[in-house]
């Protein structure tokens, strides 16, 4: 894809996309915790936190998880497994969370990433977080508590997805994409070598 076919997005634009989504995120209640998928989810998560919190309310803690997509070439007899696989590079420290915050059981959880491309990453994050919370709830005899997962991304690419997001697991949470875009490469400002040039291109495309 040529440079010109990329979608350029400025920091200002990202700030506004987060601001505009805050009311919808609050429509299912104040998130108790934000889980940011690194590295693209970090900056949106931090911006969102300020807009989601109403004056006088306590800050919403942000926890980081790291997921990477890597090419699985498949072994002998594993041709069907060729494709992209998600690998956990960083996960929640449930022990520390319980000590300093609380367990995630019964909480309103907001997962944040920058882009929903093939949906593989969001599918993995939701499934694994849901599984971890459920296992803990069974262990502690707290399966009657209502844990809700919402998802926020800056951009959703309008394309066929390789995985789905289970509404059942979200348990009443919302899926919010601040903007739906065509299937093109999105250039985010935190990746820019020349941020001034990047901003000029973003403004020219109306993404400011
Ligand atoms: P997925 O295919 O699992 O939905 O997305 C995996 C990851 O690929 C995203 O979290 C993001 O880091 C990266 N990615 C996918 N599409 C784009 C894009 O257009 N621009 C950038 N910068 N990263 C992307």
TrEMBL record:
GO molecular function: hypoxanthine phosphoribosyltransferase activity; xanthine phosphoribosyltransferase activity
PANTHER family noted in UniProt: HYPOXANTHINE PHOSPHORIBOSYLTRANSFERASE, XANTHINE PHOSPHORIBOSYLTRANSFERASE 1
Listed GO CC annotations: cytoplasm
Protein name per the record: Phosphoribosyltransferase domain-containing protein
GO biological-process terms attached to the record: GMP salvage; hypoxanthine metabolic process; IMP salvage; XMP salvage
InterPro entries assigned: PRTase-like, PRTase_dom
Organism: Kuraishia capsulata CBS 1993
Species lineage: Eukaryota, Fungi, Dikarya, Ascomycota, Saccharomycotina
UniProt domain Phosphoribosyltransferase: residue ranges: 11-131
